[in-house]
Amino acid sequence: MARITRVELAMVDLAPKVRRTDAIQSFVSQETPMVTITDSDGAIGRGYSYTIGTGGSSVMRLLRDHLAPRLIGREATEVEAIWHDLETLTHATTIGAITSISLAAIDTALWDLRCRKASLPLWRMAGGARSSAHCYTTEGGWLHLEPQALVDDALAAKEAGFTGSKVKIGKPTASEDVARIASLRDALGGGYEIMTDANQSFSRDTARRRAEALRPYDLAWIEEPLPADDIEGHIDLARAAAMPIAVGESLYSIRHFASYIARDAASIIQVDAGRIGGITPWLKVAHMAECFDIAICPHFLMELHVSLVCAVPNGRYVEYIPQLDEITQSGLTIQGGRALAPDTAGIGIDWDEDALRDRAIAEFNCDIREGA
User: Fold this and answer.
1) Is the Cβ–Cβ distance between 115 and 122 less than 8 Å?
2) Which of 29, 77, 78, 361 sits 20 to 30 Å CA-CA off 18?
């Protein structure tokens, strides 16, 4: 067994490559908290999580002041025990998004360390269901784009072998949303998946009417039609809508997912490792969904999620949104529209150490060592 002897903290801020807008917000930057853990054998694991522009400083303070110091002296292989102990530590004051994002950076680092020491890639260590997964793109579907731009991007994606494109909805009128989706379906035909994402922007009555208006277009799903905490509204909509309902990117607890799954409030689960608290709870949600024959199509983090989607039998899609290119030396490998799970030991991300050092925000750098 090997104890944790060192924890290094850093944060880099990454600007989106394109303008990203949806019905309620803009993705202005990716604050990326990073945790690097070293054990007494000298083995190293690195994990990360993210925000879309706010809260990163709070995550870093929680990591520095409360969570990272508690790792020193722990057995690095006791991933489950560490996760539960840290969640319990913060339960009275900070449970929620900030805690989950912080835990995700730690948990991902522990899994990276664990896989590296076992000389196994994450997708094999976590289950090994398949070596590749279907990939759909979101990067050309933002809400500010005109219908022709959506069509051009989707046609290019289809030509490249992608099997689906996601388009943001939530325009002021149903006719505007319908025009966007109708243009896509006319151009793409019936053999290509169209996903839609409302980003929690609808009220219950609007969601019902918008789902009905989009019924003719055979959508793969409508994502986050209602506020994430409105389970009853999702139950009612799931009963009425022709297309599957997808939720997950704004849920931060396995218990929230349990409520949605058990009550038939969603039939696509988009659990996000960076928001649920890491790989440990992500796998719990995935296997819970498997028991109900529900597909896993995680939100964002394609460089990490490709391995997790390939680890579980109900993993269906990886969402293509490139974001780590500036701090990694190799990106997601896509062949024929399928994302390939990295076969290198660890979580499969080849970090560019020079870029990480250059981009680290100095005020958040922290090095916690045994005996210091």
Assistant:
1) yes
2) 361
